[in-house]
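Hey all, quick one. A colleague (J.T.) asked me to put the T3D job into the tracker so the inputs and the structure tokens live in one place instead of scattered across chat threads. No bug as far as I know, just bookkeeping. Sequence used:
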Amino acid sequence: MADESPVLVERCAGYRVITLNRPKQLNAFNEAMHQALRRALSEAEEDSDCRALMLTGAGRAFCSGQDLRERISADGKTTVLGSALETYYNPLVRKLRALPFPVVAAVNGVAAGAGANIALACDLVLAARSATFVQAFAKIGLVPDSGGTWFLPRLVGTARARALAMLADPLPAETAAEWGMIWQAAPDERLMEEAHALAARLASGPTAALALAKQALEESALNNLDRQLDLERDLQAEAAATPDHAEGLRAFLEKRPPAFGGGQT
Ligand code: T3D
């Protein structure tokens, strides 16, 4: 019998795979899925052996955003929401951006609404060629959320961001890659293999330094060059004090691949 948990967690060597698991609803978010995902992310963060994460979807979709059936009552009235962003989506996006290791989105199929923007919140987005990204919000009279209005102009420029937000047309994965919205599109049948290889590679990287790089890139959005140079100086001092830096130098001089432990001390 298929596992009915809204989120599945697989432990691999050095990383975890989190699968959104409501395939009949194209992995739309309901409250139970939000709570399970939050738990899965906290557990991954607390596990010192977990040095990377992969986020993907069960079935033919990555995620179709909010479960819209939860937003309309039997008498056809829309539910006043507001708090769902504050309670669930915004903390989720913040958590993905702040996790102290890289997160790979393996976008196996359509990513719509908040589902698209949660993919974009991940550090590296690898998508199946047949996948599409849809800022579906305009079709139901909503505003792009879950960071969409922040990610899109930064990733693809304002002209394309406006068209994606206002037309709500599906953007094929290959175009998303050409536009720089995602890292790469992969042949459908190779997606999971490539995503695992990417997660495994990241998990054997200098995790503390990767977390600092993630922080530097995040803060660059608000900094001018002067402030960013100061930040790089400070973060570099932290990275330089890690055992992985010493190991990286030794490995270079000894002409061998580094064996990074990932730790800060
Ligand atoms: O409310 C708040 O909390 C605020 C936060 C909002 C965040 C948001 O994400 S708002 C945006 C919500 N998402 C959408 O508007 C997308 C809705 N879905 C679609 O536009 C399409 O389903 C897709 C483009 C994703 C895929 O189209 P297609 O043709 O491949 O599949 P389909 O036939 O439309 O869907 C298949 C099934 O999934 C279908 O169920 P059925 O008829 O087989 O029983 C469909 O109802 C269901 N499904 C798809 N998306 C959702 C969904 N069920 C509930 N909620 C969904 N979001």
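Adding what we noticed when we looked at it: Residues 155 and 181 are 5 Å apart (CA to CA). The longest helix spans residues 31-46.
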